[in-house]
Specification:
membrane; GDSL; SGNH_hydro_sf; signal; six-stranded mixed beta sheet; alpha/beta; single chain; hydrolase; globular; Rossmann fold
Amino acid sequence: MMDLKEKIFYFISFAISIFLGLFFPLSVDSQCNKNLVIINFGDSNSDTGGYVIVRGMIGQLPKIRTFNHDLSGRMCDGKLIIDFLCESVGNGYLTPFMESIGKNFTNGVNFAIAGSKTLPKLMFFNLHIQFAQFNRFRSLSLELFNKGDGNLLGDEDLRNALYTIDIGQNDLDGIFGKVTYEKAILKIPDIISEIENVIKGIYEQGGNNFWVHNTGPLGCLPKSLATYKKNESDYDENGCLISFNEGAKIFNNKLQVLCEKLRDEMKNITIVYVDIYSIKYDLIANSSTYGFMNPLMGCCGYGGPPYNFESNNNCGQGNYTICEDRFKYISWDGIHYTEAANGFVASKILSTHYSTPPLKLHSFCNTAP
């Protein structure tokens, strides 16, 4: 029989599932007649387990989930945005590239690793290295697929795949607050250039479909707020750091310009640019309207209000605590969003209101004529 703690856990899990379903419905698209192959590049915002495989640190992550599937290894209390997007087209969750035992890659593969950046390009597991891993995966997958291995991807799968990119947050976090604002801004074109190189590299190998997320409001992260304390005039009306958010906006603007340029330069390419920043800032600014509370405070961490973040007591390490109402929090650990917040963001993404061009995710599936 279950003890009291287990009963409480399952009750809360059930309540969260109902909460997500009622407020942020994510209907499964029935217009796909086969799996949409998704190949993802990114950082912890979309890492489905690669980091813990590489680092062997599963024991340092709180074993708390708000659903019944075994999705351990995420920097979250449950599902990431990429998980919700996969669900929306009836796909299984993406398998990390680093997971090699008994896995099926027919629905795609995930190269994202927590902590990844674009620069320096040769540092593990930054974007350039993820692209190198993709090249190896592609080569071996084609070879084994042609020999009859049904758990891998063929040439048609790779050509029709949707290549998703969500990276840049760690680059920006690594420069803002450590150098002057003016110097930080000067580094952004180099970050954009690395993203451009990867998109072009995939395109040259036959990939035509891209889904690119911009970065969120870095100045609203509890980590940023707790680490880089400023003067009162440095905060906006919602309590976020103005300079960090302005830097994120400049990065996003240049990323959008890149997407527009590549659409003009490359034949038969589709690039959907998704404005994650606007979705997340709206959620923070109107948190109570959407059923959330304490928008600038991490659920899992140390220190209590206003941010519950301390670098020496990260979630999963040190003397951290976990809030009781985590399904009402936006920030899980001061850096990453909760499953509830990720569900909200995913629902807005799927609405296409924040996408340029406004294409639905299922438009990339192989649909019936």
